[in-house]
Every structure is written in structure tokens, then in C-alpha cells.
Amino acid sequence: MDADEAYAACERITWEQARNFAYGIRLLPPPKRRALTAVYAFARRIDDIGDGDLPAADKTARLEAARVQVLALAAGDSPDDSDPVLVALTDAGPRFGVPLAAFGELIDGCLADVNGASYKTFDDLLWYCQCVAGSIGRLSLGIYGATQPEKQAKMADDLGVALQLTNILRDVREDYLNGRIYLPEEDLAKFGIEFAPFGQPEPFPDAAMQARFAGLVEFEAARAREWYASGMRLLATIDRRSAACTGAMAGIYRRLLERIASQPSAVLEGRMSLPGGEKALVAAQALAGLDRWKYRKGAAQ
After folding, report:
1. Domain final residue, candidates 80, 100, 117
2. Where residue 245 sits, what CATH number does that domain have?
3. Which of 37, 199, 206, 249 is the most exposed place for a label (fewest CB within 10 A)?
4. pLDDT in tens, 188-245
């Protein structure tokens, strides 16, 4: 399989499954767009293993096999040429200087899910967010091109944390039904919140507990806004089309965060999302560069 065929397969995966991210990725010029779809496709593969129905031992084995694959690619080894995602990454990695080894952090985060990890403090949760989302930010930065690698990597990492905190708030009910609670135990205790035992149809059958949950959502949303403020400074340090891509993806999640903050109880009823027209509007604003100039001053600090 040649690189063009491999990239085409990665683009199909991305357009079919990326939901929010596709709005931003489409704003990149073709070479960067194709490379980022390769990163997304492999990240999606890892996520699907972690979220699948296999026994934990089989998930662990598959995740470790994925780690071996990506480390081999990072070392310059040739992949199985029948696997389009690996073929595309083999081309994108050296072409753009993508730090492919960062996929190992995503795998570490997925292994934490497989092993049923819980998080006592926000610092514990921060590690997880940096693994599963910050790593994708740093991989993407490799494609965008870094002129101040250390500084920009920190911004990309911070933006990833903001997006993951938004995901955690959005998916509270869904995660609970899958036997997972990501909110830090110290925060739950602060607001007097206890989840129902796993296996129940709802995380908070008690109305008083639902009311206290709203206070926790407001607290976590304020925390996420701080991470967005730090991470969005990245936009002013990268080229216009890369900034548009990042601004569109982050902008969609920021709007989603504000919707969650204004309707905390809604996340207990089902997954919240923005309508397609609103996502397209955010992408258009990002392409116009509105966020890039807004954060220009902060990036220089």
C-alpha cells in the first residue's frame, strides 16, 4: 500500500469518527491535514481498544502491542504495509518531526482505564489528562511546526487538559454506567457528593445530591477555563492555518463547556453536544483568526 492510499484510509476514519475534531482538521492545508488524520486514526485505534468489550487482559495485550508498533515506527522500522494507519504514520512522522513516542502516554492513560483507576486528587487526574489529551496536543504540534518547542509543548499540553476536563464533565453519566469515575475524590468530598454503587441506573438518584453536583460542575468548569486560557496562547505562536485548526477544535469544546456550566443537570440526562451549524460557525471564526489575535499578547509572556 502506498502513502496516498494509506492517508486516504486515515481521512475516511477521521471524517466518520472524529465528530468535533474534523471541523478543525479540515482547515489545514492538505499535507498537514493528511498527517493529522494519521495521528487521529492511530489514537482512535488505541481509544477503541481501551473502550471495547474485550476482557481486561486482552485489552492490555493489545495496548502493549500498539506500544511496540509505535516505538518501532519511532525507531525508523518499516511497518506492515497492509496496515494503512501505520503506513501513513511512517510517512508523516519523519516528514513533520512528529514525536511518535508520545503515543506511549496515550496508551498509559488507556491502561489506567482498563485497570479501573480512580483519582484522589486533581494532580492525580492531571496526570491522566496529560496522558490521554496532552499527548495528542504535542503530537499535533509536531505537525504544525514548533518554533519554541518547550514553551509551545506546555501550551499544547495545557489545552489538552482543558479539552479532557470538558470531556469528563460531558460524560459523567456515560462513564459512570461504564464503571468509571474521573472526578477527583477530594472534589467530590468538598461538595458532599457520593456516586451510587456501580450497577445502578443513575449516578445520583437523590435530588439533593443532584443539586450539590451542580456546584461541583461550576467548580470544575472554572478550573477548565484556566487551562483553556493557558493553552489557547498556543494559537498566536503557530501559522494561521494551524491556529485555525486548533482554534476550531478548542472553540467547539469551550462552547460545550459553557453549555454544561449553564445546565449542569443536563449531563445527568445524556451526552450534550453542539448543533452542526454552531460547530461550523466556530470553525469559520477560527479560520478568520479571531482567537489567534486575541491570545497574541498572552503568548509572548
Report:
1. 117
2. 1.10.600.10
3. 199
4. 999 999 999 999 999 998 888 888 999 999 999 999 999 999 999 999 999 999 999 9
What's the pLDDT score for residue 295? 52
Angle formed by the axes of helices 103-114 and 30-51, to 10°?
20
If asked whether residues 276 and 159 sit together in one domain, one would say: yes
Asked if residue 129 and residue 265 are part of one domain, the reply reads: yes
Question: Among the three residues 101, 117, 133, which one is the final residue of a domain in this structure?
Answer: 117
In the prediction, which pLDDT does 297 show?
Answer: 47
Boundaries of domain holding 84:
1-117
Q: 124 with 228, same domain?
A: yes
In terms of domains, do 124 and 266 share one?
A: yes
Minimum mean pLDDT among 23-37, 228-242, 276-290: which range? 276-290
Q: Give this prediction's pTM.
A: 0.92
What was the pLDDT predicted at 291?
A: 59
pLDDT at 65: 96
